[in-house]
Amino acid sequence: MIERISTGICRLDDSIGGGVPKSLVTAISGPIGIGKTCMGWQFLKTGLYVDESVLLLTSKDPPELLLQTASALGYELGWALDQHRLFIVDWRNVLSDGSLASDWVKTFLNRIQSLIDEHGIKRIVFDALLPIGSVDATAVQIFYRSIQHQLSEQYSGVSIWVLMSEPFPQAFERALPFDTWIQLDWTDTEPRQRTLRIQKMPCTAIPSQAFTFDIIKGEGIVI
């Protein structure tokens, strides 16, 4: 039986056999403002509440803003920072001439590995994988495959979520063969509602319908 890890969204977990497959890479995609960062925080908070250590890697917003977002959602996580259970790594300034230097990729992945080894991190969220528009698809593919290799070789027992803003170029979609893919979107009908659809998930009976959801302060995404 495949081991699973809770998303923090009870009804979603119930519909897919207890959560997403553990120790794989999950993409959470959708337009700006749909709730991807909320879903990422909910995933990390769920880990913190079962005594796991977690890591958020930001290439989009400064850590202070992300913590403000978490607070606005009703997640006061200063205690987790104080206890060295929540780690936030800011890597917005890693690009050089629009490309990723291979030595930097190695240094960055080794830094993640050091945090995993020292603190027993079990959940990682990339918000986002890279600043899309700053790096070409080939560089992203090389970087992502480096993560996959590191995951299979050394990140044993670590579940990774990658938040991806849409629309993104088809070249990116081809370059990033995620193990699991959950898509967030808006309905076409009025009043507009947020929806969640599972596009891909190994070893899982995928529900055919899209779930509508709300974002409730203190609870996060609720289906």
What does this structure look like?
The chain is an alpha/beta fold and 223 residues long. The chain has one domain (4-222): P-loop containing nucleotide triphosphate hydrolases (Rossmann fold, 3-Layer(aba) Sandwich), CATH 3.40.50. It has seven helices and eleven strands. The chain has helices at 10-15, 36-48, 63-72, 78-82, 102-119, 137-153, 170-175; strands at residues 4-5, 20-21, 25-30, 53-58, 86-90, 121-127, 159-165, 180-186, 194-200, 211-216, 220-222. The strands form two sheets. A nine-stranded mixed sheet has the order 5-4-6-7-3-8-9-10-11. Helix 5 (102-119) packs parallel to helix 6 (137-153).
Category from helices, strands and their pairing: alpha/beta
Mean pLDDT across all residues, rounded? 85
Tell me the CATH topology: Rossmann fold
* CATH class category label: Alpha Beta
Using the CA coordinates, give the radius of gyration. 17 Å
CATH hierarchy: architecture = 3-Layer(aba) Sandwich
| CATH superfamily heading | P-loop containing nucleotide triphosphate hydrolases
Tell how many strands the DSSP assignment holds.
11
Distance separating the two termini: 26 Å
H/E series: EHEEHEHHEHEHEHEEEE
Q: How many distinct folded domains?
A: 1
Unreliable runs: none
How many helical stretches? Answer: 7
Largest sheet: 9 strands, mixed
Helix percent reads: 25-40%
- How big a fraction of the residues is strand? 25-35%
- Overall, the morphology is globular
